[in-house]
Amino acid sequence: MTELGARLKEAREAKGYSLEDLQRVTKIQKRYLIGIEEGNYDLIPGKFYVRAFIKQYAESVGLSPEVIFEEYKNDIPTSFNDDIPEQLSRVNTRKTVPQSSSKAFDIIPKLLVAIFVIGALFVIWLVVSNYLGSDKSSDQTNEDRSPVQVDQNKDADKNEKANENIEEKNENAEGDIEHKEEPAEESEKPKPELSVVESSGIETTYALKNAKEFKLDLATSGDSWIEVYNSKGEQLSYGMMSDGESKSIDLKADPEASLVIGNASNTEIKVNGTVLQYEISPTEVVRQNIIIQFSKSE
């Protein structure tokens, strides 16, 4: 047992805590607590967790973590940054999400409208040509006809004009329908989309597009260490989540969230209610770093 382990154990016994009691308080598994007291850090998965667990242990038994780290700095692993993903430092390694959209189908409705207009003009031209031809023939025969026949021709002309007006109104009405239907297609808004931008090692970057909000829901089916940071590096969640725990985080319009997942196979992540599919299999890589870039829709 190291001097640090003896110091922590002495403080725990002074509080009257058993290892089981301390496990319930800190949510740290008993075998990790024993490893800290005995100085057997190989039982703990990573130097980052060694420092995190010692900090929680000290706080739970009434000791100052800062004092403990200073007095026993030779006994505690110092490579804290080795376990923190480089991307959490916000260096310029992020990639912007490519945005592209095809407008090929926008041409089809306009082409159909143009064809319809040309067809309508052709029909009108035929009707007008027939009407002018009938007028010329009627003028040549009107001189030899009786007044009764003239009146009948006038009535026929009126009926023909009325039919033409009806046809023109129908054509205009159909044209209006076509023009009204066209904006309906253009007004359709794209659905929210969560897609993978890049995946390498234990880190995956996702892009959240066409969404008006940015909410995270975390749930565990076993113990898992979870950290959540916003785009400014501010800590939104930090600590161990045990079996059955859940937590919701509203990032509002923050452009990015970074997550450290200690046990991906036990952790479910939902983004705006949609379950995030791990690009890297949790059975192959237990600990994963997730970055979600958010681009708010207009």
Q: How many individual β-strands?
A: 10
Based on the structure, what is the oligomeric state of the protein chains? Answer: single chain
Helicity, in percent? 40-55%
With helices defined by DSSP (H or I, 4 residues minimum), what is the helix count? 7
Structural class: alpha+beta
Strand content: 15-25%
- Which H/E pattern describes the elements? HHHHHHHEEEEEEEEEE
Describe this structure in words.
With 298 residues, this protein is an alpha+beta fold. The protein folds into three domains: 81 residues, 434 Repressor (Amino-terminal Domain) (Orthogonal Bundle); 83 residues; 104 residues, no CATH class. Helices cover 42% and strands 21% of the residues. It contains seven helices and ten strands. The protein has a six-stranded mixed sheet, with no helix packed on it. The protein has a four-stranded antiparallel sheet with strand order 6-3-8-9, with no helix packed on it. Helix 4 packs across helix 5. The protein is rod-shaped. About 9% of the residues have low confidence.
